[in-house]
UniProtKB/TrEMBL annotation:
Transmembrane segment boundaries: 21-42
Pfam families membership: Beta-barrel_RND_2 (PF25954), BSH_CzcB (PF25973), YknX_C (PF25989)
Domain of life: Bacteria
Residue span, YknX-like C-terminal permuted SH3-like domain: 318-387
Keyword set includes Heme: no
Protein name: Efflux RND transporter periplasmic adaptor subunit
Location of the CusB-like beta-barrel domain: 241-311
Ranges of residues in domain CzcB-like barrel-sandwich hybrid: 88-233
Keywords: Membrane, Transmembrane, Transmembrane helix
Organism whose genome encodes this protein: Novosphingobium pokkalii
């Protein structure tokens, strides 16, 4: 009995051994978990790479290319111009005084010499009174000197006076005569100045400005003197246009042009070149051209804006591109092209005629080339771009 009990107790105290199948299953589960984690990490890394590649691909802009076409043999060169009256006079007061009255206002048509205003000149009037008195005194002195000299010359014939005394009387007469002439000239000067008290139009035209009013101090004594009136001869109009140097040789006197103005839509006016500055402005590279247009109907207004169209031959080798392809940078006007490596190349160009939706390029491009239409403002040399498959001309 005792031996049996000890045998049972020994068997209960011994540690239990795990089955061999359970250990193998745990190892397989651990390997499977590690594989799942590895596959997940690889998948997420691959997705990140794909996302990065997609983002980079989306960051590269897609551009449209347009063809560079040869320019027409001839056409209209349309440029902006400014209009001016054939003659313009800013009329200042020549004499000091006060505005007494004005007889013409803005918009009045006047002839040459038409009175525009009258100036009250109290100081000048007093100077004229003093000059008349000085002239009267000089004439009286000259009359006395003349009679004195005549008597002394009679006395000289019988040697009653010396030659020296007679010469002195004759010299005094010459002095008095010269004094009279000086007084007459001074009075004539003041009377001529008085004539400017009536302000007159220097030529036929239209009063375009009146700045003085009754009672205003005008003339040399006025503070901040300004023109009393402005008169413009608008029967003919001058038009000034800056023409690009590429067309300077074609701007000869007699070249005809047409012009349009915003306030007369649908109407054109004939003009012709009457002269040029014969020099290129270094600031804008343009030749100033002056045209003349008849304005007997007063449809054109001095100081206004006009679009002037010249019919001139095209420059040799010129091409045309859409206006939307232009880039205006600090380095000048440029266009963007795409190289064989898919990267942008910026090309400087020289513009010719403005044809509206398209422009003429006289240097920098050749026919058959392609440029980017509507390039982004931020586009730069070396930028990568995608070219769409449907470029158009």
């Amino acid at each position: 009995m005792q031996n049996d009990t000890s045998l049972v107790v020994g068997q209960e105290d011994a540690p239990a051994r795990a089955p061999r199948g359970l250990k193998t299953a745990g190892l397989v589960a651990a390997v499977a978990a590690a594989a799942i984690v590895g596959i997940g990490l690889y998948s997420r890394h691959s997705e990140a790479l794909d996302t990065h590649a997609w983002s980079e691909a989306q960051a590269i802009p897609t551009v449209h290319l347009v063809d560079v076409a040869p320019a027409a043999a001839s056409g209209a060169l349309t440029l902006p111009g400014t209009m001016a009256a054939w003659n313009t006079a800013h009329i200042f007061a020549r004499v000091p005084g006060y505005m007494q009255a004005w007889t013409r206002d803005i918009g009045a048509t006047v002839g040459q010499g038409t009175p525009l205003a009258t100036i009250e000149t109290p100081e000048l009037d007093q100077q004229i009174v003093a000059a008349r008195a000085a002239l009267a005194k000089a004439r009286a002195s000259a009359s006395l000197a003349r009679s004195t000299a005549a008597r002394w010359n009679d006395l000289l014939t019988d040697h009653s006076v010396s030659q020296q005394e007679a010469d002195e009387r004759n010299g005094n007469l010459a002095v008095q005569v010269a004094t009279v002439r000086g007084a007459e000239a001074d009075l004539a000067r003041l009377l001529a100045m008085k004539g400017y008290a009536t302000v007159r139009a220097p030529f036929a035209g239209v009063v375009t400005q009146r700045t003085a009013d009754i009672g205003d101090l005008v003339g040399p004594g006025a503070t901040n003197q300004q023109p009393m009136f402005t008169v413009a001869d608008v029967g003919r109009i001058r038009i000034y246009v800056g023409v690009p140097q590429a067309y300077a040789a074609a701007m000869k006197p007699g070249v005809e042009a047409t012009l349009t103005v915003p306030d007369e839509p649908g109407q054109t006016f004939a003009a012709k070149v009457v002269g040029t500055s014969d020099a290129i402005n270094p600031q804008n590279g343009a030749l100033q051209v002056q045209l003349l247009a008849d304005n007997s109907a007063h449809a054109l207004r001095a100081g206004g804006y006009a679009q002037v169209s010249f019919k001139v031959p095209s420059s040799g080798g010129a091409v045309t591109i859409p206006s939307s392809a232009l880039l205006f940078r600090s380095a000048g006007t440029q266009v963007a092209t795409v190289g064989s490596d898919g990267r942008v190349r910026l090309v400087p160009i020289t513009l010719g005629r403005d044809l509206g939706k398209s422009v003429e390029v006289v240097s920098g491009l050749s026919a058959g080339a392609k440029v980017i239409d509507n390039p982004p403002d931020s586009i730069a040399n070396g930028d990568a771009v995608h070219v769409d498959g449907g470029h158009h001309g």
